[in-house]
């Protein structure tokens, strides 16, 4: 099948359900047949959270969040068509999904999923500026968590230091442990949009475990995580989204002084510290 034609068919399938947000769950589930169903568990959980929060609603939701999900679905649908008919995908992210279907492993799943997500972020940065400052901050937190979870599998020493052996077991998308990092109900407020809510209030309301993950595990090595993901996904633009531990995507205007710290966070930083020398812009 013609590459451009395959991409157009995939896009049309996504456009057909644009006014029916719940149908996104159907398309996601159909991508994972019974032997692969476990791979879609975390993705479906995150999608249900998006639906419950209302960000995918075509009238009252977020154009940015819809664009990211559109990219993910389009890449997967294109890959599924090509898996049945043969050929090469129109984009590297869709090609990564095709490689997952041909060789389904945790590594190929993360590379495919995260390639679609990262491509969605980079290609839709103009849309993120329409979001409130607090939403832009949460959008950055989401990406950092996704990349950290990927590193648990492919670069566990970077993610966990001396506890690197735990990384691949925790990060396997077919297991339940990965939800500890990708379940954002204890990080994000449920309402959308976040009128009248400051970043400081979001940080103050974050659950204890989520706070340790974000400020004990992820932020101390966030530049290195983005550099790792740029290498794994062959996406050189990615490191530019952080600088000296500060999120830059959409310019969320986060003051480092607002970052919480306590004994649990300091201890987590100490025992998972790595000797990685990572690039700074």
Task: Give the SSE map.
Elements: H1 3-16, H2 23-31, H3 41-53, H4 63-85, H5 92-102, H6 106-123, H7 125-128, H8 133-154, H9 156-160, H10 167-171, H11 179-182, H12 199-205, H13 208-218, H14 222-233, E1 242-243, E2 246-247, H15 263-271
Antiparallel strand pairs: 1-2
Helix pairs in contact: 1-4, 2-3, 2-4, 4-5, 4-6, 5-6, 6-8, 8-14, 13-15
Task: Describe this protein's structure.
- There is one protein chain.
- The protein is 59% helix and 1% strand.
- The chain is built from 15 helices and two strands.
- With 281 residues, the chain is mainly alpha-helical.
- Helix 1 crosses helix 4 and helix 6 runs antiparallel to helix 8.
- The protein folds into two domains: 130 residues, no CATH class; 150 residues, no CATH class.
- The longest helix has 23 residues.
**Mean pLDDT level:** 91
Task: Give the beta-strand count.
Answer: 2
- The structure class reads mainly alpha
Give the end-to-end Cα distance, rounded to a whole number of Å. 43 Å
Biggest sheet strand order reads 1-2
Helical coverage, percent range: 55-70%
Helix-strand pattern: HHHHHHHHHHHHHHEEH
Residue stretches low in confidence (pLDDT < 50, at least 5 long) are: 275-281
Strand content: under 5%
Dominant shape:
globular
How many domains? The number is 2
Query: Mind telling me the C-alpha Rg?
Result: 18 Å
Mind summarizing the main beta sheet?
2 strands, antiparallel
Helical stretch tally: 15
Quick overview:
With 281 residues, the protein is mostly helical. The protein contains 15 helices and two strands. It is 59% helix and 1% strand.
């Amino acid at each position: 099948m013609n590459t451009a034609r395959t991409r157009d068919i995939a896009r049309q399938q996504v456009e057909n359900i644009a006014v029916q947000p719940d149908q996104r769950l159907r398309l996601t589930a159909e991508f994972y047949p019974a032997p692969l169903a476990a791979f879609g568990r975390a993705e479906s959980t995150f999608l249900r959270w998006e639906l419950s929060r209302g960000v995918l609603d075509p009238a009252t939701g977020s154009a940015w969040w819809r664009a990211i999900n559109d990219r993910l679905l389009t890449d997967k649908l294109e890959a599924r068509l090509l898996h049945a008919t043969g050929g090469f995908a129109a984009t590297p992210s869709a090609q990564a999904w095709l490689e997952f279907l041909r060789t389904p492993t945790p590594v190929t799943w993360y590379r495919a999923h995260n390639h679609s997500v990262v491509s969605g972020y980079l290609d839709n940065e103009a849309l993120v500026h329409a979001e409130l400052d607090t939403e832009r901050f949460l959008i950055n937190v989401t990406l950092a968590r996704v990349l950290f979870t990927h590193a648990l599998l492919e670069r566990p020493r970077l993610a966990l230091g001396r506890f690197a052996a735990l990384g691949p077991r925790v990060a396997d998308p077919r297991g339940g442990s990965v939800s500890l990092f990708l379940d954002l109900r204890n990080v994000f407020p449920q309402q959308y949009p976040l009128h009248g809510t400051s970043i400081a209030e979001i940080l103050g309301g974050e659950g204890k475990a989520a706070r340790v993950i974000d400020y004990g595990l992820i932020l101390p090595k966030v530049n290195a995580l983005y550099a790792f993901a740029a290498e794994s996904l062959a996406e050189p633009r990615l490191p530019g989204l952080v600088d000296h531990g500060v999120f830059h995507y959409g310019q969320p205007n986060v003051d480092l002084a607002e970052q919480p710290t306590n004994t649990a966070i300091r201890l987590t930083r100490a025992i998972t510290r790595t000797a990685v020398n990572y690039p700074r812009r």
